[in-house]
UniProtKB/TrEMBL annotation:
This is GH18 domain-containing protein. It comes from Ramazzottius varieornatus (Water bear). It comes from the Eukaryota. GO terms for cellular component: extracellular region. It holds the Pfam family Glyco_hydro_18. The gene is RvY_14644-1. Belongs to the glycosyl hydrolase 18 family. Gene3D superfamilies: 3.10.50.10, Glycosidases. Residues 5-353 form the GH18 domain.
Length: 386
């Protein structure tokens, strides 16, 4: 495992379904687990949590007994944070409330996901106020021992980045950026064409604005604007987006569509393929799509995950972020019982080796002087990840 690299992942805790329980998360293939979702009251500044969230957070923190390296954080997500950010008093209340939740649940820090400062609030000065909020959070977090982590989820498109973020001012405040390199293409009345949810690269025919709508461009733009490369953690979705084709006889990239259907999990996409769907890998964009009858799906699979995470490592970025664990094959339905196959592959490529539990066993064998078992142990773990 390479020191300093990051593999973060978002996780939605929902006690009503318990589809993916905290206890079933494999912490050996993560460095940071970020738990959805708390909000902030725009009139009081207090953190608002669903009543079940503190229990879920504590269950996630309990994973640290088995995976001591794992950092567990909660995500503060909001689209209405503008009144809080603009008011010094509400910022103070918000920060006090955040620290109280961190202490209550034994968390390692917080990820802030404001979608998006200035861009949709109608207040251009929120660009500055967001920096004020981050700076004051940083100061409060640094007073704790050990210091709390502060990360942020950031937009990937230029239309949002420019009005929303003072990147040189933000960079010193955060430990790293979870860059949301997905949702590049959504169905709109003025944009009815099937397109990739999270392309790695631009296609040859894309120019101007359209040439910016891909992961490579977003990462390089944040870096050019002042975010240190080692703090850029590149987001990769495990969910898929689906469109309804206008003409089933024309199911290719940029085909006309009539609407966007629901999002899908990785397992649902593989079931779609098993039931007659056709897979096409777009070598220019570095991602696949699939179609069958009137349904067209943009998704990630092991080939695109390999393309993206190898690129992250080769180009020296801080790591990769998975959105989300709930959409990966967490039950091991598809591949010989292997759980979290996409996340596991991301870990192998970004971190440069075995899961933490395998590294720990190797160290234990070496410490005991039994080097003869090390190669056998590590070979077995590699097979699990392949």
């Amino acid at each position: 495992m390479e020191e300093g690299k990051i593999l973060s992942a978002y996780y939605t805790y929902n006690p009503d379904t318990e589809a993916l329980r905290p206890e079933d998360i494999n912490g050996s293939i993560l460095t940071h687990l970020i738990v959805f979702l708390a909000d902030v009251c725009s009139s009081t500044g207090q953190i608002m949590c669903p009543p079940w969230l503190p229990e879920g957070l504590k269950r996630c923190v309990a994973l640290k007994h088995k995976f001591p390296h794992l950092k567990v954080m909660f995500c503060l997500g909001s689209t209405t944070m503008s009144p809080v950010a603009r008011s010094p008093e509400l910022r103070r209340v918000c920060i006090t409330s955040v620290v109280a939740l961190l202490e209550e649940c034994g968390l390692d820090g917080m990820d802030i996901d404001w979608e998006f400062p200035a861009w949709n609030s109608g207040h251009s000065e929120d660009k500055k106020h967001y920096v004020d909020l981050l700076r004051e959070l940083r100061e409060a977090f640094d007073r704790h021992s050990p210091r709390y982590l502060l990360t942020m989820a950031g937009a990937a498109t230029k239309l949002i980045i420019d009005p929303a973020y003072d990147i040189p001012a933000i960079a010193p405040c955060i430990d790293f950026l979870n860059l949301m390199c997905y949702d590049y293409h959504l169905f709109k009345p003025y944009d009815i064409w099937a397109g990739h949810n999270a392309p790695m690269f631009r296609r040859r025919e894309q120019h101007g604005f359209f040439a910016t709508m891909n992961t490579q461009w977003s990462c390089e733009y944040w870096e050019r604007r002042g975010m240190p490369k080692e703090k850029i953690v590149v987001g990769i979705p495990t969910y898929a987006r689906s469109w309804q084709l206008l003409f089933p006889c024309f199911p290719y990239y940029h085909a006309p569509c009539t609407k966007e259907n629901c999002s899908l999990t990785y397992v649902q996409v593989q079931e779609f393929l098993a039931q007659g769907g056709t897979r096409v890998f777009d070598k220019q964009a570095g991602v696949p799509y699939a179609y069958h009858r009137r349904q067209w799906i943009s998704y990630e699979d092991e080939e695109s995950m390999d393309v993206k995470t190898q690129w992250v490592r080769r180009n020296g970025y801080g790591g990769a972020m998975i959105f989300s664990l709930n959409h990966d094959d967490y039950a091991g339905i598809l591949k010989n019982g292997e759980k979290f196959p996409l996340t596991s592959l991301a870990w192998k490529n970004v971190m440069g080796g075995e899961a933490v539990e395998a590294v720990g066993r190797k160290q234990q064998l070496l410490a005991a002087g039994d080097s003869s078992q090390v190669e056998f142990s590590m070979t077995s773990e590699r097979k699990k990840l392949l």
